[in-house]
Amino acid sequence: MGRRKMQRVLQVVNIMDRGGVETLLMNIYRKVNRESIQFDFLTHPYDQDYSYEYESEILSMGGQIYKAPSFSQNPHDYQTYIEDFFRNHPEYTVIHAHNLDSASLVYMREAKKSGRYLIAHSHNTNDHGGRLKRQMLQICHHIVRRYPDHFYACSKQAAEFAFGKKIASSRNCEIFYNGIDLARYCVNEIEHNTARKKLSLDVDGPVFGTVGRLLSQKNHTFLLDVFAAILRREPSSILIIVGKGDLRTALERKAKDLGISQHVHFAGSVPNVPDYLKAFDVFLFPSLYEGLGMAAVEAQACGLPTLMSDEVPSLAACTDLAEFISLSADAEKWADESLRAYRESIGHRSDRIEQVRDAGFDINEIAKKLCFFYNNHNSN
Q1: Interatomic CA distance for residues 291 and 251, integer angstroms
Q2: CA-wise closest residue to 158 among 132, 178, 180
Q3: Element (H, E) at 274
Q4: What b/e sequence results for 146-183 when a residue is b if at least 16 CB atoms lie within 10 Å of its CB, and e otherwise?
Q5: Burial of 347: CB neighbours in 10 Å, binned 0-12, 13-18, 19+
Q6: What Rg value do the Cα atoms of the chain yield, rounded?
Q7: How far is the CA of 223 from the CAs of 37, 219, 309, 332, in angstroms?
Q8: I need a surface site. Which of 44, 207, 323, 341 has the fewest CB within 10 A?
Q9: In this structure, which long-range contacts are made by residues 127-130, counting pairs with CB atoms below 8 Å and at least 24 apart in sequence?
Q10: Edge-to-edge strand order for the sheet containing 322-325?
């Protein structure tokens, strides 16, 4: 019996920058046996010539990156590109679609016309655009539901948001647990102090932190209000914000207006998020909405008291360290709870790797299940 031919799976995304969906895909990609399954990426970049953060790693692992023209700026060119793409690439029998915006009206239709097995994957429960954009997205979701053969979502709320309640409760829809490489989050009190030194955090007071793109969804504006209230109670505190995005300048301006900029550090996009989590004392996550909130799961794995808004799906509370606070609560309430969580955790830092594994977030198991699914739907 001959050796099985390598299967190439096409992942359809916006860009391969360091964000939640992209990091999940890379975590899976690093774990798959690339002699049997290879990931390639159909992307929708803002800039055709720009090399996004994960692209060099993808190329080093044997993956291909295709850059489609803008659908919104030139629908005709996009239609032509997609038609040519599927005509010229019969090797992709499984298409895994993570980009569910207006471009999906074209690429999903063409994927089905050319006989591919199509998976649609919802990663969010809302959209950070304006009212018109949200309405257009709802129309788009309603139309493209007819094309996929299978549906994945990171939570029930994310499934209902993109696919509607009927599909979300059907046999063709599964909750797909986002996974992390748990080995990277091991920590104890000694390693916690070492991580602070490694990041040059020579401070005596508490280190509060968050991780996420600088988008309105993540509610950093409110976070700065919370931290200003924390500082009034504990003047030696610092806040580290990991992530990049269009709101950075506005957030830096707000920190300055609040008189707290000397205590707030914008780290930007970093390749070593676990090092930051190990150095933090408390993780703050006041998101307006989340598909799941994997940053909060990572924080818990790393032993961090994790304070989340009540808009984060309950699935993200996978350890004894998770707490929900209402977004209707004011900054003073959040500050009190943040400092209480800090004081209760002083001196006994330990990871929650086993709790997170038991909750189903081990990337090794998730990668195995996904590859098994791909193999069972490969017509090669």
Answers
A1: 24
A2: 178
A3: helix 273-279
A4: ebbebbbbbbbbbbbbbbeeebbeeeebeebbbbbbbe
A5: exposed
A6: 21
A7: 42, 6, 11, 11
A8: 323
A9: 128/215, 128/216, 128/217
A10: 264-268, 238-242, 207-211, 282-285, 306-309, 322-325
pLDDT in tens, 268-295: 999 999 999 999 999 999 999 998 999 9
Summarised one tens digit per residue, pLDDT across range 311-343 is 999 999 999 999 999 999 999 999 999 999 999
- Residue 338: CA count within 13 A, CB half-sphere: 35
The CB density around residue 290, as the number of other CB atoms within 10 Å, is 29
One-letter identity of residue 196: R
Structural contact between residues 44 and 99, judged by C-beta atoms closer than 8 angstroms: yes
Distances (CA, A) of 5 to 94, 110, 224: 14, 25, 53
List strand residue ranges (DSSP E) for 170-277, in order: 173-175, 207-211, 238-242, 264-268
pTM: 0.90
